[in-house]
Amino acid sequence: MTRIQLTREQVLEHSKRMRSFPRIVAEILATIDDPNGDVRTLAQCIEHDPIIVARVLSAANRASVRGRRESELVDIYAATSLIGMGRVREIALISSLDSFVAARAQDLRSERLWQHCVSVGVCCQELALQVTQPVSTDLALVAGLLHDIGQFWLYSFDAKAYQACWSEALRSRRSIEEVEYEQFGLGHTLVGAWLARDWGLSEGICDAIQGHHVPIAASANPLISLVHVAEVVSNALNLSIGDENRVSFISNAACEQLGLVWDERAQALFGRIEARSRHANRFFSSQGHEG
């Protein structure tokens, strides 16, 4: 492979030629800690995005059918009230990032990578409900969805070179990041962190993107450990299609930091993660990649 030495300036400059990062993500994240945030505030964030509105209404009408509601929901405020702010934020965040990534998806490998990111995001959410340290499920979702955004950037920069990286990693049974450093002079976690900071995302999310392969026990940011564990669990459950779903090491220190214990109760947790991941990937793929 021909070595390329990329710099932060090159990464950010190339990123400017791509579709801009969805502003709605930042707007939704800003509502999380807003003491005055309510259903109306959240609905106002999403009501001008027809794709998100359609998906929220679809989810709400499915729920209303189960609840034997006779009339069809067409109002975003009523839909939000019915399925809850947490579910609406989840749909909005995945939808906006789904469309954002779709603009970079070039082939089946890109689509499989996004399926993996959705699965890790869902896994992060579920694990956030189990950990002893307080972690926002919305921040956990975004960190999981974006943990491999650097791979999309590297792929869009030079698809042929990145395909060669994957082939070499699988052939030599080395980590993709090790091969990335040989080819590009940096890895996808660093690229992802640079992008996230440039987009104005929180330092917690940026650090989780950059550090999820090498979590540090002493880190004050539990999101790093959370994304690390979520990716390992996602691969172990084979939640996305592809040869790259290899089970890497899981950091005992990360599990201890989060207070995660893998006892008999973990089976129920794994079942929820698998069911939600399959549903999310089916739901969003079935809606198409509009926009």
Q: How would you describe what is shown here?
A:
By secondary structure, the chain is mainly α. Helices cover 68% and strands 0% of the residues. The chain is built from 16 helices and no strands. The chain has helices at 8-16, 23-32, 39-46, 50-66, 76-83, 85-102, 108-128, 137-146, 149-157, 159-172, 176-184, 188-198, 203-211, 222-236, 252-258, 266-287. Helix 4 (50-66) packs across helix 5 (76-83), helix 7 packs across helix 16 and helix 13 (203-211) packs across helix 14. The longest helix is centred in the C-terminal third of the chain and has 22 residues, at 266-287. The chain starts with 7 loop residues before the first helix and ends with a helix. 41% of the residues are buried.
Notable traits:
about 290 residues; mainly alpha; Hypothetical protein af1432; about 0% strand
What ranges have pLDDT less than 50 throughout 5 or more consecutive residues?
Answer: none
Structural class: mainly alpha
CATH topology of the largest domain: Hypothetical protein af1432
Radius of gyration: 19 Å
- Overall structural domain count: 2
